[in-house]
Amino acid sequence: MSDDLDHFEQEQAFNLPNSTSRLRACLTCKIILSGQQFTREGCPNCRDADMVGNKQAVEELTTRNYSGTAAVMDPSNSWVARNIKADKLVAGVYAIAVQGFVSEAQGDDYELE
């Protein structure tokens, strides 16, 4: 069984928050990461080169106002992931609901992969 777990961990890239404070949820895909992670790496699901190194874009494209969380380890085989529309996204922690919206100007360049 240990070999199966090792194989699973090698195939999956988990995108987990590196902190328990100052967490933010992407307004488009709802993945939860720290603001620092969004600034350093961008959103792992959404195409937006402007988020990397751009704190203002992180503030505009993510929110601290979210409710509920779901940890999704195997998105393509998870009924929870299907229910929250994360079944085609990367493994990680997702918000059930987010408050806020992406402005039309930002939304043009901010699409899911």
Q: How does this structure look, described?
A:
The protein has 113 residues and is of the alpha+beta class. The chain has one domain: Herpes Virus-1. The strands form 3 sheets. Strands 2-1-4 form a 3-stranded antiparallel beta sheet. A two-stranded antiparallel ribbon has the order 3-7. A two-stranded antiparallel ribbon has the order 5-6. A hairpin with a 5-residue loop joins strand 1 and strand 2. The chain is globular. About 4% of the residues have low confidence.
- Strand count: 7
Given the helix and strand composition, which structural class is it?
Answer: alpha+beta
Q: Main beta sheet: strand number and arrangement?
A: 3 strands, antiparallel
Total helix count?
A: 5
Give start-end ranges of low-pLDDT stretches. Answer: 7-11
